[in-house]
Structures are given as C-alpha cells and as structure tokens.
Amino acid sequence: MGLRSEQKKHFPLRGIDGVVKLFEAELRNPEPDLALLSLVLGFVEHFLAVNRVVPVNVPGVRFEPLEPDCPSSCFPVVELGLLTALHERFTAQIRGAVDLTRYRRSGGISSRELVNKVSDVIWNSLSRSYFKDRAHIQSLFSLITGTKLDSSGVAFAVVAACQVLGLRDVHLALSEDHAWVIFGKDGEESAEVTWHGKGNEDRRGQTVTAGVNERSWLYLKGSYMKCDRNMEVAFMVCAINPSLDLHTDSTELLQLQQRLLWLLYERGDLDKYPMAMGTLADLEDQEPISGKENPLTIHMKAVESAKKFYNNEHIYPFMYLAGYHYRHRDVKDALRAWAEAATVMQDYNYCREDEEIYKEFFDIANDVIPTLLKETAAEGGVEGSEVPAEKADKGSPRQSAVLSALQDPECFAHLLRFYDGICKWEEGSPTPVLHVGWATYLVQSLSRFDAQVRQKVSIITKEVDAQDDDDQSSDDPREGRRRGPRRESKLEDQPPQPLPPGQSPPTTTATTTTTTAAAAAPPPAPASAPQAAAPPAKKVGGGEGGGRRRSSQGARGAEPEAKARASTPSPTPSCTQQQGVGGAGGAGGGPVVTFHSEKMKGMKELLSAAKVNSSAIKLQLTAQSQVQMKRQKPSGSGDYTLSFMKRPRKTL
C-alpha cells in the first residue's frame, strides 16, 4: 500500500512552503503519516547539510532557489517518484518481517512480544558498526538509504513501524535525554527499544520502572512526555539538525524548522512539549518573524507547561530561559533561572547515566557564570564589585545596570540557591557530583560580590524531618553536628502559612535552625545580626512569584501563575511564599535564602564573612557528600552516558 491520492497531490514539494503545506495537511488527519514526513525531512536535511554540493552534480535531484534574486540559497525539490519508492520500501520491510497473526491482540491492545518483535526488526536492519553519535542519522531516510540511526531515531522508527502495522496504541515516550515506547490502555505499559549513550548495551523489552524508582533524571521520576501522533511529528521537527559543521548552520534548515514549529505551536500541539517550545523560542530569538510572539513569552509558556503537566520536574525549560537572559546580558534573571533549574534538580539522585545534565550544570557553574560575572565587572569598568554604584558613570545606563547586578543581593541569593540545589542533588546519590574544580569557581564567583552585598542576604537552614531519622544511620559524630539539635527544628515540620502583604512572619522562622559545621570559620560581620529582630523577609525561593514576573514582559498574570502554583507541588516548600518586589527585606533589607543541603549549611558563616575564606570553602564543598545517604536498593542498570536528542548549542 503506497501513498494515498490526497498525499500525492502535494508533490513535487518546492521550497519551504511546499513542505509546510504537506505537514499542515497531515496534521489535520487523526493519524499523520510518520514515515512519509520523516522521509521528507530526512531527504531535505541530507541535501542541505550532509551532501551539500553543487546542484548539477546530483543526478535525479533538482534544486530551486528559495528566492529568485538569491541563487545561492537553494532548496531540493522533493519528487513524488523518489518518496514513493522510499515509503514503499519501508512499509514492505516492516510488513514482510512481522506476521500479526502470530500475536494476540485483545481490544486493539498490543502485547509486549509484538512490540519487541518490531523493535528487533528495526534493530537488525542497522549496520553492525558505525559511529552512533554522528549527526544527521535520526530520520527514516537515513535508515532506508544508509541503514544507520541514532538512539532516538531507533525509538522513533519503532513507533513509525508500529503505525504501518496498524498498532495505534504504540506511542513515543520522551524524557529530556532518552526515548522509549509506551503501549496498552492509556499508555500504561512501557518498553525500552533502544540504547542510551555511548555503549551498545540495550535494555530492549524491559520496562522503565527501575529507572523511575532510582529517581534518576534520565527518567524524570515518571514525569516524562507521553506523546500523541502530533507530538511525535513535533519530535521529528525538533530532531532536525541544521549543522554543517561545528560553527556553521544551514539557514534553509533553520527556516524550515522554525516554520514547522510555528505551525505546531499555533495549533496547540506543543502545549505539552516544553523542550519544543524552548527550541522555537531560541530560533525566534535569532531570526524573529514579524507578527509572532516574542521569545520570552514562549520560554515562560514552556516553564508553565513543565509545571502544569510534568510536576515541575523538567530541567531544560529553565535552561532555555536562562540562556535567553544570558544572551541578552540580563544577569539577575539568568541567575534566577539557573537557580530554578538547580532547585528542581535537587530532588533527583545523580546516577552515571545522567552525565548529560551533569555536563550542563558543570559548564554553567565553572564556565558560564564565572565568565558572565567577570564580563559584568569588566563592562562596569571595575575588576570586582568593590566600587559602589553611586560612583559609576550615571550617564551610562549600561554601566549602571552592570554595576547594579553585582551589587544586588538578590543576584547573590540566586547564586547561593544554584549551588544549594547542586549540593542537595549530590546527597543520597550513588555517584558524587562535586570536586575541587567546582570549589575553585565557586570561590571565584563569590568573590565578585562585595562583603556588604553578601551580608544583606539572610540565610536560614532547613533541617531533616523527624520521619527521615530512621534512614540516617552513621557513627560519625560530625553528621550529628551538621543536622543540628532536633528540638530546634520541630517548628520546621509545619508547612509555612501564607502571609498577607506587609504582615511580619513569626520571629522564630529565621532562628529555628542553626549550622555549626563551620565552627572554625571567621565570625560573621556585624551586618549578619540575629534575624529575630529583622523586618518581614523577602524570600528568593523556588516559586513563580514577584521575582519571576519581573523578568518577563510577556509572562502570564498573577492569577494564572497562582493557579499553576496551587496545582503543582514546589520543589522547595519553604520558599513558595514569596513576597512582592516592594516588600521589606530580611536583615539589612535583603532577601532570604533557605539552605537544604548539608554542605551549604556548613558554609553559612563563611558566605557572610568580610573576606572569602577560599580554603575553608573548598574543604567544605569537597567533603564527603553522602552526609544524608539513605538506604536504597542496588540498581541493575548499565552504564549509559551522554545525550541523544539535544541539538548542539554553539552559544548560549
């Protein structure tokens, strides 16, 4: 069975408009033809990025300029005959290898044995040896013409093959770095169909339950995307790789990807696909299309989507948002978004297969943030942040904004929250995260803020709940000192109550817990006075409160945000009650940060000292990490590393 007549009438496909019209027509169907659309995208990508040669040297393939007055910008014409042959070859290969009569299907529900058989067919059609991380091998065009697929391409090919066989209950499941399939009633069953990372090991046929129970980022604690057909189309569009080399992209492929993502976005097909919205916002930030939404609005919608549909357990929406603010040199909002990402990350356990997200945080902490703060100081005309803002050139708004970032205690508070999330992520994980390299750049970043700025941030600590005591077993007396007196932390067991604007919280809130692990540290400066006498505190926490709304002209209003917050639990319950911008601050009028990690609690006094004690900070940050190690069953998972899907980002 070949292409239908309504599909054939769109050919030949000329230019970007022709491809977009085909996608638009297929998306109107309840079952868009995944195989056809993937073959079209693979064909176009091959001749625009892989085999980008002089058009006259490609027999059987015609190229036409995208614009009449720009002959150098060419686009391959997708002919009906070629696509029909490729489509029929794929369908014949699948139907010839799978005999549906040998598998029982009750009520239209596929069995695990049938899904495994389809997976075997795709798996066995691949070349025995090839570099599986190479670019441009994610589409069915690569499978048919080169017998090569990357990890995500295998999972997508299995879903497309199941569609060819009429298995409508089999769909693609996506985390932020892995892909597998779901099937059965409402996608209740799951099955691995591909590998992950460098190794050739695979878990094909197994469920993802073990990975979910490990609380690893790779499986998002079960909050992964369960795709429908249109989201699977969005996945193949996001998988377009426009890279010609490490430094050059195909402008034609970028335009095609942007147009297709706008088509999906405006149809509502990206509402549950935060990473796709992040990709669209990045493309729009580079080359905006007149009359479309601004990129920041799309980034904020991606964040809201992750909170609404995925329990606020996705990391990349905040990463994309931070990248946007970084490119626009908005220091405070970039730090805030990175802090939000780390706050979400703190509830995961770091496993070896989470290496991709480790690399992201490592680069941010040890390259991006130090460089951003260094450039901020340089643009302000100072080497550090020792020069008060009032001494800057008040006729230069740029310099004034730069200096205000380094002298803004909220920026320092976001930096602390970022590192607190990383340290908390490490606690209880089977694999350590932090080493001396992290400590070196932490000290460098802390030193960018003057002592007076650091001392305006009030730090409180969140102790371990009493019900967790049974899981904390150690003979080391130092751990008991880190946890602090149990009787002082009982007030923390009660969830914080919302406060009316302008009303002072109970004076015991900021003084219920103390940290004594840094007893050898220098005494705090006078500005860090006991907080019981402080005015109402302005918390800089993991909520979508006033601080978040300040960072976006296109963000949603207060009421939708409040509803979203009420429907999704916050990763940091003690920081959800965030006052407005005009509220009074903590000690010295600054923000309040709640520490959850033992390492940051141990550095509480060091962070507000008049001089940054680099040696003490390095010792504390690189100390044994599993202070709060909980008993957990050993995992039988293999060592899988690196990523499969994320398009290489040349710059933030």
Largest sheet, in brief, is: 4 strands, antiparallel
**Separate helix tally:** 25
Helicity level? 40-55%
Mean pLDDT: 78
- Spatial order of strands in the largest sheet: 5-4-3-6
Number of DSSP E strands: 9
- End-to-end distance: 46 Å
Report the principal-axis shape: globular
Poorly predicted ranges (pLDDT <50, ≥5 residues)? 382-396, 466-585, 626-652
Structural class: mainly alpha
Strand content of the residues, in percent?
Answer: 5-15%
Whole-angstrom Rg: 27 Å
Characterise the protein shown here:
The protein is mainly alpha-helical and 652 residues long. The protein contains 25 helices and 9 strands. Helices cover 43% and strands 6% of the residues. Strand 3 (171-174) and strand 4 (179-183) form a beta hairpin. Helix 11 (274-286) runs parallel beside helix 13 (316-327). The longest helix has 25 residues, at 355-379.
